[in-house]
Every structure is written in C-alpha cells, then in structure tokens.
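Support case: user asked for a sample of complex input and structure output to validate their parser. Sending the pair below.
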Amino acid sequence: MELLLTNLAHGFGVALSFQNLTFALLGALIGTAIGVLPGIGPVATISLLLPITFGLPATTAIIMLAGIFYGAQYGGSTTAILLNLPGEVSSVVTTLEGYKMARNGRAGAALATAAIGSFFAGTVGTVLVAASGPLLTQVALSFGPADYFSLMLLGLIIASVLAQGSVVKAIGMVVFGVALGLVGTDVQTGQQRFTFGIPELSDGIGFVPVAMGMFGIAEIVLNLERPEARSVLTNKVGSLWLTKEEFRRATPAVLRGTVVGSFLGILPGGGASLAAFGSYMMERKMSKGRDQFGSGAIEGVAGPEAANNAAAQTSFIPLLTLGIPSNAVMALMVGALIIQGIQPGPRMVEAQPDLFWGLIASMWVGNLMLLVINLPMIGMWVKLLQVPYKYLYPAILVFCSIGVYSLNNNVFDVYMTVLFSVFGYMCNKLRLEAAPLLIGFVLGPMMEEHLRRAMLLSRGDVMVFLQRPISATMLAIGFIALALMLLPSLRKGKDKALAE
Amino acid sequence: MSNVVARRGVLATSVFAPHVLRAQGWPSQTIRLVVPYAPGGTTDLMARLVSQPLAERLGVAITIENRPGAGATVGSLAVAQAAPDGHTLLMSNIASHGIGPSLYPNIRYDAVRDFSHIALITENPSVFVANPRAGITSLAELAQRHRASSGGLDMATSGAGSSNHMLVVLMGRALGRDINHIPFRGAGPAMTAVIAGQVPLMSDSLPSAASHLRAGSVVGVAMSSAQRHPAFPAIPTFREQGHDIVGTGWFGLSGPAGMAASVVDHINREVRAILATAEQQARFAELGGTPGRLSAAEYTDYVRREVEYWAPVVRASGAQPD
Amino acid sequence: MKINEKDLMSGLFLILIAAVGLWLNQEHTLGSARRMGPGYMPLMVFWLQIGLGAIVLLASIFSDGEKLTRWTSAEIASFVGGIAVGTAVWWVLKSTGGFFGQTYNAVGTGMLAGFLVLSIPQGWRILGVINAAMCLFGLLLEKMGFFAALVGIIVLSCLAEREHLKKPVGILGCTVFLLVMCWFVFIKQLDIRVNLWPQL
C-alpha cells in the first residue's frame, strides 16, 4: 500500500509537469472534438497525429494519445444524446434513453449525467489499474474460449432486454444481427462468406455504416416526415442541470455501472463492448426508475456511461501488464512506443517506471480535465438543438457522409450507409428495433470465434461449456434471464388468447 | 470548440520535410504511401519508420494512407490502378504479394506485372514459441509430444492465411501429422492465450514476439530464418533441428506498373541509404527485422519467387477462400 | 380475426432473409462439431431466425390489429420503378469503361437513379431525396472533388424540406456555411485524404 502511494506520487510528479499537463489537455480536447464528429474515430486521428509524437518524449506522447482515447469516449456520448448518432457500440445504448431525454427537454441533464458518471467511473477504474493491475491480469487469463463463448451468449440473451416492445421480435433482430456479422472472411479457414465477390466485404460489414444508417440517417428521414416531432426537439430545452430527484436516481446507477464496467473491461476477448449494455440491462431490471425505461430514464444514461468509462480504464490492464493491446487504439499506442524505441511488455513497470506511473496518474488527470472541459460546454451543445431542423439536418447528413467515407477512404462505405438507412427506415415502420440488431452484429462474430476455438481445443466435446465453472455460471444466468423474460410475455399471450 | 480545433490544426500536419531543392519533374507533389493495413500493425509501423527519413531526403511530404481490407489486397489494388507518376506508393508485403495471389482466386491484380517493385525494406523471420510450463523447448520435444498425444498438439497463429499459418502447415507435413491450427484475430489475442496456457504453442512473427521472448513469458522453440537471428542467438533454426523449413515475412516499397526507371532507381537508392544508417539498423535489430539491400530488379525477382514458393503451400493448407 | 400487420410483415421478413441465407450457405462446408466449417454457424443462426420469424408470424394472427399504412398506387409504382430503373442503370453502366468502370461509380449511379425515381410520389419523397443526396456525394467525391460533392449533397438534401423550396435563399446560406465549416474541420484540421477540386 505504501509502495503504491509512493509510486502514485511519483506518477503524479510526472503527469503534473507543465509539458505533460499541456499535452494531456490537448489530447482531451482533440478527443472530444473527434468524438463529436460522427464516423471520425480515435484510430484515424491518432494515426494522423503519430508523426507529431515522434518529436515528443515517450511519456508525453502516450499521455496525449490516452487523452484522445478518453476524449473520444466523452465526445461520442454527446452526439448519441443530442442527435441519435452512435459512433460505437457503447453509444448505441446511450442513444436509447439519452436521445429520449433530449426529446423531453432534458438534454442538459443527460449530458451532465454522462460527464459526471464517466468521471467517477474513470477515477475508480484508475485506482483499480494502479492498485491491482497484476492481480486482475490473472482474472483475464483465467477466461478461456469456452468462458468467452458463454459470456457472449449471455450478452446476446440480455441484449433482447434492449427491446422497447416485443421480446421475440427483439431476439429475432439479435439473431439477424449475428447473421449480418457473419459476412466476411471466416477467421478459422480464411474462406469468404456472403461477400458476393466484393473485396470490401471480406473484412465484414463495417459497424459505422450500419449504425450511422440505421440510427442517424434513418432518423433524419423520420424527423422530416413528422414536422411535429422536431418542434419538440427545438422548443424544449429545459434546465441544464440535474434536479435533486434526478441526482438521487443517477447515483446508484453510476455505482452499479462502475462495478460492472470495471470487471468486463479487464477481459480482452470482447468484455469492454459488453460493459455499457450489461449495465443498461441491470438498471432496467433493478433501478427504481425501471418503469420509465424507453421514455428517457436517467438511470439508462448514468449506468451505461459509467460502465463504459470504467471499462475503458481497466482495458489498459492487459496492455500495461502483458504488453498486449486489447483494441485498435492501444495497438496504435504500442506502435508509438516502438517508434520511440520502447518495447512495451511485461517488464514495462520496472524498465519504464516514469512512463507506467505517469500514464496511470495522467489517466485520472485526463478524466478530470474532460469533466472541466465538458460541463461548461453542455450549455453550448444544448443550444445546438435550437438550430432550426431544416438547417441542422443537412449538416448532420454532410458530417456523416464525410465521416463514413474517411473510415477507409472508400465510397463503398457511403453506399453501405445508404442501404442501411433504408433498412433502418423499414425496421422503424415494422417496429423492428435497431439496437438489439447492432448488439448481435458486434457480439455475434466474437461468439462464433470463441465457440469454434473452444470446440477445436476440446476436440469437439460440448461438455466443456458445463465443466468449466465460469462458463457454467454464465450459462445458468443466461438461462434464468431468458426464462424471466419469456414467462411474462407467454402468460400475457395466453391470457389474450383465452380472452378471445 | 473552435479553439480546440484550431490547436489540433497545428498538429494535424503530415510528415513535413524541410525545403530542399529538388530535381525537375519528380517529385512535384506530396507522395501518398498506401499502407494496406489498419494503423498500429507492423506494416504500418515500418511505413512510418521509413517514410519520415525518406520525406526528408526526397524533399516532399509523404502522407500515409491506411486502406485495409481482404488480406491487404484492397489497398494493393488501389495502387495498381493509380497513375504511375511516382506520387502513389504501396507497402507491398508477403500477404498481398506473396501468399494473397494463391489465396484469393479472384484477385484483381497480378502481383508482379501490375506493379513497379522498388525496394525491399525488411525481412523478418517467424518463430515458434511455447508457454514455459508446456515443457517444449525444441522441435524434437515438439515432435515427440505431438506423436504421443491422442489429439495432437495445438498451435495458435495470428490468423488463417498468414505466413505464420503456412509454417504450421509445413511443420505438420514434415511431422507426417497435421498440427491443430488454432487461428486468432491478430497476434495479441493469440499471445494472450499462449501466456495463459490455453494453447501451448504459437507461430508468430519475430517483431511481435520479441518483447515476450525477452521477458521470458514465452520460450523460443525454432526460428524460421536460414541462420540464427543476431538478436536471439539462443534460438536454433528449423534447419539446425533437422527440418528444411525457411520462410520469412517481408515488406517493401512498390508503385503502379509503368513507373519511370529513373524514379524507381532514385527511390531505391534513398531507401537503401536510409536502411544503412546506424539509427535504422539499431531500430530494426531491436524489432527483429533485417533491413533489405536489394536493387529494384532484384526485388521484382524476389516477389516473383515468393509467389511461386507459396502457391503449393497455400493449396496444402486448405486456406482457400471460395 | 384481427391481424397485427406489422408483426406479420416482420415475421415474413425474418423468414425470407434467413431462407435466402440458408440457400447461399449451401456453398460453405459444414464441418464437424469439433472442426466447424464456415457453414456451421450460419446454418444454426438462420434456422434459429426462421424459428423466431415463425413465432412472430403466428403471434401476429392472435394479437390486436396494428395496421400498416396502405401504399397508394403511385407509391407502389415508384417503388417497383425505382428498383427497376436503378438495376437497369447499373446493368448498362457497369460494362462501360471510363468513369463508370471505376470503383463503385456504376452502383452509385444506379442507386442515385433508383432513389430519384422513388422520390416522385409524396410518400417516398423524403426517403428518396435524402438517400439520393448521399449517393450523389459518393459519386462526385473522388472525381469532382470535395467541394463539388458537398454542394451536391447539400443542395439535393435541402429539397427534401418544403420550407427550403419556398425560400431557396436558405439553401444558399446553408451551402456556403457548411462548405466553409467542412473545409475548416475536415481539410484544414483533420487533413483527411481527398481531392478538393475536380480531377480532369
């Protein structure tokens, strides 16, 4: 404990130097800006900025890149709440309650909750990384392919909780999402599946074209079709700050979200992407405001945002203790380190104490900065909603188009977005929901990968899923969740059938 | 907000070169270097390491454009179709120009004829590594364990169709029994599984395995280079252990077919000069790569031989899309 | 008997897609449970989807009637016409060389034409125009440059809104503002890789 404090003190010494503070701030600002722009993600930005980091000391460079990473997370929830534009998986969940809150005139409260919840979760996450990184690594390593498969399956089952309406239709959409995720090169054999000979499809359908099309563009069309709906959007702004009641409801949600997110973030095999909606499911079932879900419940913003940010922090653990990046942004950070002549790896703590502890301290500093930057900006963001919709929608459309194009510098993605916007429009008319589909789309390929790997390693023995305690527990929870979900709707159906 | 963006404008410049007097004609504008992989990978890294000094020497900016997709063939196709004016270049590599032509039957370019191959940048061997608790430190032990176990040994790689996968296939053929190939999505997850002990062995390219070998979280079993690698002299080669398997990954610089010979030679000269500097030599040694020394004609020939070498191996591997 | 039309269509949709998927999946090897082939997972997923679709379909017959809006004959005509015209344009252009032979320009032109036909009747106007605008952006961007593509998408998408048609000066202001803003954000700051001006 004492050692930890000494190390942290050392870390803060590094992080609070004028140069490092400046670059942490810069990174946070850049990250926020790109997070707000739909389609432009941290990966593209960091790769653009890499040449600049050549000239900086390694610690400063990494601190700035980490700042971009967090900043993008903060910025992403802004567009999700204000414009129903999710740029990544976690923001899909934020759109569900956040955008509804914005339509109810509570955009300010939603943004403030997201910022404060994220800051709190970020703080807890940072402490966890510093205090028990190596210990938590062991947790991550104890998850085998069978366990990951069961975790993903559990995730898919609870994804249908995202449903606002019929559970069966939602499960149908989850399964269809999984099917969409199958498009592309089969990881095991390298065979092309459902690609129709189109080379761009060999890496699968992109997440951003699907999300932008089904949420962003389809929403524009629907808003334009209902002039009465957009006047709600522009006229009601409401108080910017949280009411006492909202604060009281958001606090436990943030706490629960932090716990869920911190745990899932450790798992490099896809845990972090489960964090936000794992928390959403929990709030929907457990929180006091569960009746308001679907019409703008603050718990549905507070919990997932906290979970997401906690996971963002703890997902650094595999990188820092094993030298293995758990996502594309971290792969780029490793690249930046190698260019600097530092080989990240298990020995980084001893070999580069400045870098290691400086980064951990600056994680917290970066989160604090984001809070300070973002809270005053809420007023400005909410003002954005007062721009008449007839001027706002061409801007959204243009930003989405450029963003989607710049993903791969390929117009193919623009046309994919168009197709998914039509599909999203159709789904809206049929009351098929897009959110469960997106979750299935993201988790499906991971689930298949882990399933096939588990079966390869177990020589085809299905019992492996029940023999491993972690896996068996996950499956049991999933089974109970499914039963709880289906029973009420079955009973309701029976009552109705009887009444006829 | 505007401040935010304004500041990053100062930063978001490409690799700027000092103003140097340049020759007539070429290079007359920014050079676009297409990396057919996502940012952060080894190819991306190599491109960035080389493009900075190259930009200084040529006196123009070089911007890196990541165009990932389909085992590096999407970005390669884009360059094959670009104007051969010397302002669009490609990081050619073993996936797009060695294995890819045999792996993707409906590939839309010819790896040799549709490109002006300019210079080999680096070659790096692959290495078989094992979890220290697996008790496998040599190919003899590997072979013995492989025969003894009822289901055979498992070996992880960064993905199906990679050169690392091909080495697993070659090794299985040499032992007379297929090794269970466990493909992962990238080297990171595969290495995690090996360190955790879920899979005992992995075939990995040296640059990505280097830090784990140094830290002792995995042990080296065999190196796929012809001679022992200077950075890891303790790891014996496949040949030394009685198996004639040699296969190295490589990256180079190429452009569209039909580039002027003077431009090709100019770039080749500059790249070789850069690779010969002590700074780059040290950087490459640390990463486990060997800097290339080939002329443009030699590199073209090198690519041709690679395509021929991998074709039968790819067929044997069963990694055949469609 | 009242039928929930939305659920009926949803169920049919899920079943139809899954059936097509199963048909396409025939070319993939199934493999064994131990070494699952590329076709194993799709097979399971599509059958599950058919099952769920069937439940939705059956349930729709026993639940309250949620009606879909009826399509007018003009809407049906433009829907079918849009698909036909789009496919025809694509079919003709894809074999011609030059501009339409490159990247996805033939597909994009086909989609643009299809959406424009779709947008003729009132009910499809907004859906057609917004998507046509995005297609126009994709078509213009690489050949005609960033600014031309922006003008195209902004002007066309503004036509989706009645108020702009009454006061076209709004379109002009909107275009100029967005051109400057996008240039500043994407070109000046983010430095994305794209041609600014026509490549002739």
